[in-house]
Design brief:
Elements: H1 4-7, E1 9-10, E2 15-16, H2 21-31, E3 35-39, E4 45-50, H3 51-57, H4 70-73, E5 81-82, H5 87-96, E6 102-106, E7 109-114, H6 116-122, H7 125-136
Parallel strand pairs: 2-3, 5-6
Antiparallel strand pairs: 1-7, 3-4, 6-7
InterPro entries: CBS_dom, CBS_dom_sf, Diverse_CBS-Domain
Pfam families: CBS (PF00571)
Protein name: CBS domain-containing protein
Length: about 140
Amino acid sequence: MTTAADIMHRGAQWIPAHETLDRAAQLMRQLDVGALPISDENERLCGILTDRDIVVGCVAMGHDPAKVTAGDMAKGTPRWVAADADVDAVLDEMQGHQIRRLPVIENKRLVGMISEADLAKHLTEEQLAGWVESVYARS
């Protein structure tokens, strides 16, 4: 059985909720990623911040990314999957919530992220086509 841990990208890092968006953008550039999980003071997942969130939700609104925090951008219920979850559970979570990136948690700690690129490397063409259709479908 293929698990989330088998297909995830290891080495994912949190951005603390109190960090500013300019710092988040710097970390994204340093890590060459487009999204960061946001952690609360107890290193628990409280959201995901994307590069698009910074541009559309902050810069385009005329706000200063040096004053807006990652926590200010965290909205909704964060989605995640356990490291030992099978691929079907990963797909169900991503498809059911139309999300493109999914944090992987083990023992209440972030151990990786699953992105579109990870799925493309590990899914069959049929699985990938189903995922794309459901995640990118307009509601």
